[in-house]
Amino acid sequence: MIVLHLANRSLWDMTDISDAELQAITTVSEAATKTGLAGAHGDELTPKGSFLKLIGADDASPVNSLGIISVADYTATVQTWQIKQRPPGGGDPTDRLSTLIETGQALYVGRIARMKLGIEGTLAINSPGLPSVPTPTASASARKIKMN
């Protein structure tokens, strides 16, 4: 397990956040930057700008306000996300669906918001750990079944 952890260090960093990093994030924009969404508020041609417009946030919108939205409602909204892109030859921008990575980054913004409110814990807290294996026990009331 340790080898896997070290081999996927950047993936691990993306999916977990330290307490210090969490405390430093105060706005939705900062959370979006932490997840890797590129761009700027107001620029709908970038993933970050398009995402902030989708959820109605600006650079000063508190991340806590996003944390109280239900996971189902938030996920449904993110799944409708389309990003404007300019065609290669120029012209009017067209919409494209967000990529899986962009969708994951947007969902992670919601997770950060829920973690800020204490609604959701870090991966270390949420990890189920190793499953327990039931041990057979002798029972006085055990019945014997004869199979023919």
Strand order, sheet with most strands: 1-2
Sequence stretches where pLDDT stays below 50 over 5 or more residues: 1-14, 124-133
Portion in helices: 40-55%
Count, helices: 9
Form type: extended
Radius of gyration: 22 Å
Order of helices and strands: HHHHHHHEEHH
Q: Report the portion of residues in β strands.
A: 5-15%
Q: Return the average pLDDT rounded to an integer.
A: 80
CA-to-CA gap between the ends? Answer: 47 Å
Q: What structural class is derived from the secondary structure elements?
A: mainly alpha
Give me the oligomer status. single chain
Q: Find the count of extended strands (DSSP E, 2+ residues).
A: 2
**Main sheet, how many strands, which sense, barrel?**
2 strands, antiparallel
Topology at a glance:
Layout: H1 2-7, H2 9-15, H3 19-24, H4 28-35, H5 47-55, H6 63-67, H7 71-79, E1 82-85, E2 94-97, H8 100-116, H9 123-126
Antiparallel strand pairs: 1-2
Helix pairs in contact: 4-8, 7-8
Keywords:
148 residues; two-stranded antiparallel sheet; 2 strands; 48% helix; 5% strand; disordered N terminus
